[in-house]
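Q: Trace token order:
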Amino acid sequence: MVVFTRFLRQSWGGCAAAALSIALVAGGSGVALAQEGSGSDPVRPLNQASSSLSIASGQQLMAEASAAIADQNYPLAEEKLKAAKDSFNQISTYYQELAQMFVGVDTQINRSNREKALETAQLRDQASYQLALVYRSQNQASEAVPLLMEILRSQQPTRDLGQRAYQQLFELGFVDEPYNGRAAATPVEPAEPAEAVEPAAPTE
């Protein structure tokens, strides 16, 4: 078996851990790619904040939005929060689809992806709430109301974020009756995580 190996070092200053080795195996099944120093656990790129399809990336966008709000740079905050909301929503949708694929096939994979779908849906709703507040701070109530309604559909008024969304609707004058945080008389059936987060159990 003939093995041809080429190391690309370029601007890495000879650092062995960063050198990329490409092994072409003649007569083998294909091309083997290996990165020196990666060990037995290779880097998983979609776990990195640099990936648009990672939870870390969305959280980074929300942190940047918070910094923009602190600087009163509301256009930048709006841009970052929209991007975070869209990213979390897409990720949540994918996780929910994966969970559904493994119903009756693999319980652990189904549960894992279902939990991820719920987690990212919650983050999406948090981004939506912050975006609604940015709109309100700029006297753009007509932009805030649709977002607050999305949150209420997802969270339901029995959850903390849902209650805060309803309070915003009340303060904006969209609804006339305040809500005192009373739990629903009967549990509300949870919607799909990509659209909604499971409601909390009613309190006594």
